[in-house]
Amino acid sequence: MKCGLIVPLCCSLILSACVNTDRVSDMTVKIATMGSFWRAAGGAAFLNGVKLAAKEAAYEYEPLGYTILHEFHDDADDYSQGMLIVDELLRDKSLTAVIGSQNLSILEMASHRFENEGKLMIAPHGISNQVMEDKGYRYTFSIAYSSYDVGAAAKEYAVNNGIKQWAVCYHDDVYTRREIRGFTEYKDNMGVEIMDYQKTSISDLNLDYIYRRWEALGVQGVYIAPGYLEGFDIVRLIRGKNKDMIIAGDFAFDNRRAFLDMNEDMRGFLMVNAFYTDRQKPEYLSFKDRYEKEYGEQIDTWAAHGYDSFRMIADTAVRNQTVRPEKIAEALRKDGYQGLAANYSFRDNGELAPEFYSIVRYSDGEFEDVEVYLQ
Fold it and tell me: What's the whole-model pTM score?
């Protein structure tokens, strides 16, 4: 199903009169966004950021003769629906680039198929290291921390704060297994150990046994890498046993409403962000004002991330005077992109090479930066 924003601007009255409206011109950058943002981290804020980027880029680049188009495709967080959308997008020869789904199964297959057709794809929620390392893609770029980097950032926090003994609860998929590998391997000689591994199928039925095991092993902290909302259930169960246990997790927990609903249990929770946001950067502050005026709601950092996802494609195209996906990809790989709240550079395999890693602590409706690491 296709819905949302389409922002075409004609270069001139004469040009619009002469061009067949069914055919996209050679000066058009057409970007499609896939996803189901009722479930994704950041919710509607990410998509709102994309829409505002499309609107502003269309207005800004019209005088230069460029037409900037955007369309949103709701994949309903369903693999079959996602593949139907990919089929539709591949039939569209005018398409320049795709902002990929938050569903990793959809994203991984889509990246393979778009790569084969020479279509640029941005993975704003990250993508498995295994995909990026094994495939040798030229057109796929991740602008969130890799799964390995997320685990490494958590390990950095543990090392810096002297928290030596950890248990890990993880959803058994390719992404989270790589994340836990990052936690295990990074700085493996610094005295931090994983004492126990558990799947995220922990429940009231088996928690007593598991918690007694953790007590016997001297576990000081629990790191959770969930598939989605089951992570909050695990926090609730652990807090029922120990209100003071250090609990950390990845950005699958990035759901403000769930934090508010479980405010007491989530107090002190440590979350590895999906990306670093400099909220004091002038460009971010200016965007914050425009966003809140446009949508009448408080900004979320995912809004800026959505904005950058779109503008890095459109701006790179115009800056390099090309609408060809391969040329845009070459420029991104070589020069990166200066975004609203972060600067993006990429490893040879298209993974984000972040300048910073960040971890936040939750307390009564607010997230406080507690650790920011240089790469």
Answer: 0.86
